[in-house]
């Protein structure tokens, strides 16, 4: 039996840190049975703040159960370890099968959230630059198309003056006006 709660609470481990830690715990025994306690959303929110937990208790439960190193999940585990909870560890301690395991990972949910925010800001800045370049290209293409259109109109007008039907048509119109 392993006391993982205190270490995880002190270090605030999440995500890959949890998985690495659970793997370490799992490998400590020939016949491991790893029980993970999850706090209710309200409990996490009270201690971590309004943006937490990122995943609700149902999502967290499914995520933890999907971990190959976990045998069982207890929903609603207390946030603080009290005397009554520690009494459950007396027998494992007496039998010498109780061990405290350090997770050895400093990655926290806050670290991941900050990384996401930083990457989002970089992504937005990069996309604004791309958008500006694309708009400049689009404007240049429109200008070039307008210039080509004007050149074609000018070319058509110069060709039209030379052709006999364009010369006659204005005369016919004048003639029609006279009548």
Automatic annotation (TrEMBL):
A molecular function GO annotation: ethanolamine-phosphate cytidylyltransferase activity
UniProt entry tagged with the keyword Nucleotidyltransferase: yes
Keywords for this protein: Lipid biosynthesis, Lipid metabolism, Nucleotidyltransferase, Phospholipid biosynthesis, Phospholipid metabolism, Transferase
Membrane-crossing residue ranges in chain numbering: none
GO cellular component: cytoplasm
Source organism superkingdom: Eukaryota
Stored Gene3D superfamilies: HUPs (3.40.50.620)
Annotated ranges, domain Cytidyltransferase-like: 16-89
EC number(s) recorded for this UniProt protein: 2.7.7.14
NCBIfam families in the record: cyt_tran_rel
Protein name: ethanolamine-phosphate cytidylyltransferase
Organism name: Albula glossodonta (roundjaw bonefish)
């Amino acid at each position: 039996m392993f006391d993982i709660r205190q270490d995880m609470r002190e270090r605030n481990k999440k995500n890959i840190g949890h998985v690495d830690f659970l793997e370490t715990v799992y490998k400590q025994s020939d016949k491991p049975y790893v029980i993970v306690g999850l706090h209710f959303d309200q409990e996490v929110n009270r201690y971590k703040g309004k943006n937490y937990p990122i995943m609700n208790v149902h999502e967290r439960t499914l995520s933890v159960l999907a971990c190959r190193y976990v045998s069982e999940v207890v929903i609603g585990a207390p946030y603080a370890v009290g005397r009554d909870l520690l009494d459950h560890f007396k027998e494992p301690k007496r039998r010498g099968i109780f061990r405290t395991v350090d997770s050895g990972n400093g990655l926290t949910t806050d670290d991941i959230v900050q990384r996401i925010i930083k990457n989002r800001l970089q992504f937005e800045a990069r996309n604004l630059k791309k958008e500006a370049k694309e708009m400049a290209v689009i404007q240049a293409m429109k200008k070039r198309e307008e210039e080509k259109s004007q050149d074609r109109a000018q070319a058509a007008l110069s060709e039209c003056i030379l052709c006999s039907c364009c010369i006659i048509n204005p005369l016919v119109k004048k003639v029609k006006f006279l009548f």
